DNA sequence: GGGAATATTCCC
DNA sequence: GGGAATATTCCC
């Protein structure tokens, strides 16, 4: 499996595009910038890690978990930056995935819900932490369903 | 060929069960009583017969058709007077029938909808015609789900 | 996209 | 039972 890390992978090595920097010390970085960098490239398995105890609307937590499912990466997955998601296979998504998580199989109904929570077409969604640990969802423009 | 109408078909004829009545005239009967008597003992297959062109809420027309299904008489059927319905097998009704017609399998959700349209527990419903051809649903007290 | 009607869930 | 929150459909 790809989860088995080989010894070579665990030993830090220099890369051509990442020169070793020993000095001077890193300049001051604002906290929110640090948090941006600390955000994992792939979102965690469950929103509970990000927002423990929060009462997220069911649609948002279900969508988040659904997008995070590794088995569905060919159909729907997080975008490159981990702050958006993309539906790669809208037909399969509508026919097979939606009914497993919602009471319908219509892309339009899914999009309608995204709109309700301030997302926009196309099927991308942004999730990021705020100071108050609230969840914000923002839309982008790329692709469609 | 069918364009030849036979003489026998065009001539009105007396039937054994329809004696010719010349006198005296039938006594006066109020219109609503006539309509009561004219209501068929078993409801028609579709509400369209009763309320042609009416825009009935989907829940009511689906429930009406569902109750009218002969195959479901062992699970749900019209009551003796044809103006109420009874769920004879709530378990089967919830598990097998509800998901075929609605997006859930919960008796409570079905009852909630009945309540919305002025029905009451238990699962009986009254459907009758008014002068304005509107539909009225009334609840009775007998049995439960 | 989103308003509005209808449906489903949740909870008192 | 029914108010209210959320979900789904319908339609502009």
TrEMBL record, chains A, B:
<keyword id="KW-0597">Phosphoprotein</keyword>
<dbReference type="GO" id="GO:0034605">
    <property type="term" value="P:cellular response to heat"/>
</dbReference>
<keyword id="KW-0346">Stress response</keyword>
<dbReference type="Pfam" id="PF00447">
    <property type="entry name" value="HSF_DNA-bind"/>
</dbReference>
<feature type="region of interest" description="Disordered">
    <location>
        <begin position="1"/>
        <end position="29"/>
    </location>
</feature>
<comment type="subunit">
    <text>Homotrimer.</text>
</comment>
<dbReference type="GO" id="GO:0005634">
    <property type="term" value="C:nucleus"/>
</dbReference>
<keyword id="KW-0804">Transcription</keyword>
<feature type="domain" description="HSF-type DNA-binding">
    <location>
        <begin position="55"/>
        <end position="136"/>
    </location>
</feature>
<dbReference type="GO" id="GO:0000978">
    <property type="term" value="F:RNA polymerase II cis-regulatory region sequence-specific DNA binding"/>
</dbReference>
<keyword id="KW-0805">Transcription regulation</keyword>
<keyword id="KW-0238">DNA-binding</keyword>
<dbReference type="InterPro" id="IPR000232">
    <property type="entry name" value="HSF_DNA-bd"/>
</dbReference>
<feature type="compositionally biased region" description="Basic and acidic residues">
    <location>
        <begin position="1"/>
        <end position="18"/>
    </location>
</feature>
<keyword id="KW-0539">Nucleus</keyword>
<protein>
    <recommendedName>
        <fullName>HSF-type DNA-binding domain-containing protein</fullName>
    </recommendedName>
</protein>
<comment type="similarity">
    <text>Belongs to the HSF family.</text>
</comment>
<dbReference type="GO" id="GO:0006357">
    <property type="term" value="P:regulation of transcription by RNA polymerase II"/>
</dbReference>
<dbReference type="GO" id="GO:0003700">
    <property type="term" value="F:DNA-binding transcription factor activity"/>
</dbReference>
């Amino acid at each position: 499996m790809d989860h088995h890390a080989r010894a070579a992978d665990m030993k830090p090595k220099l890369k051509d595009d990442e020169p070793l920097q020993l000095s001077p010390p890193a300049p001051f970085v604002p906290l929110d910038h640090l948090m941006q960098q600390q955000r994992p490239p792939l979102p965690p398995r469950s929103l509970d890690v990000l927002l423990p105890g929060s009462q997220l609307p069911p649609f948002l937590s279900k969508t988040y978990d659904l997008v995070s499912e590794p088995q569905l990466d060919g159909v729907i997955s997080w975008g490159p930056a981990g702050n958006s998601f993309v539906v790669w296979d809208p037909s399969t998504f509508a026919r097979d995935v939606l009914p497993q998580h919602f009471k319908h199989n219509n892309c339009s109904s899914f999009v309608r819900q995204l709109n309700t929570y301030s997302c926009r077409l196309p099927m991308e969604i942004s999730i990021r932490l705020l100071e108050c640990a609230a969840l914000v969802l923002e839309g982008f423009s790329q692709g469609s369903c």
